[in-house]
Amino acid sequence: MEPALTNIGIVLSDPGYLDAVRELTSRYDVLLINDETHTFSAGPGGMTLRERLSPDLVVIGKAIGGGIPTGAYGLSHALAERILARTDLDLVDMGGVGGTLAGNPLSVAAMRATLGEVLTDDAFTTMIDTATTFTTGVQKPSTHTPCRGRSTSSARAPSTASRRPTRALAPTPPGPPTVSSRTISTSTWPTAGSS
Fold first, then answer.
1. How far apart are CA 48 and CA 60, in angstroms?
2. Mean pLDDT score of the chain, rounded to an integer?
3. Which of 7, 45, 123, 158 lies most in the core, judged by the most C-beta atoms within 10 Å?
């Protein structure tokens, strides 16, 4: 799972949700895998470190190589021990014979450059400050548009969502739309053909 929804802007979960997911997966002996491909933008260590999450695995895709096809994963100590204790596994050739995400020199060089020169602590500080400034400006009320919206940079990459008081494509739940600094309600969407 992603620690936050990211394909519709950045939408953080309600307080306690991620802890409850961890509790349930532990109770039912289910591995918890955090996909940090997008939420990696939260800062060094992604949301896993920022929110002090404790998944069994963390995976990340092209972002760690600046867009070059690559991927990486990390295991908890407990899971690594469980895997290494399996003497029946062929750990030498479990991945087959290469492919897009195989450890080729270009992908490894891209990861080293991205992590060493681009996604540094100093760069994250600048990115977070810029995202915060942007978000603050977007959140200021505007009298020049009928759109209501909300912007969040809680996951450290700015994200905006707007709502128009138009006809909905699907039934809209009763009551006013809910918008908070942690969630964005999208119960009313623009009608087809509108922009």
1. 12
2. 74
3. 158
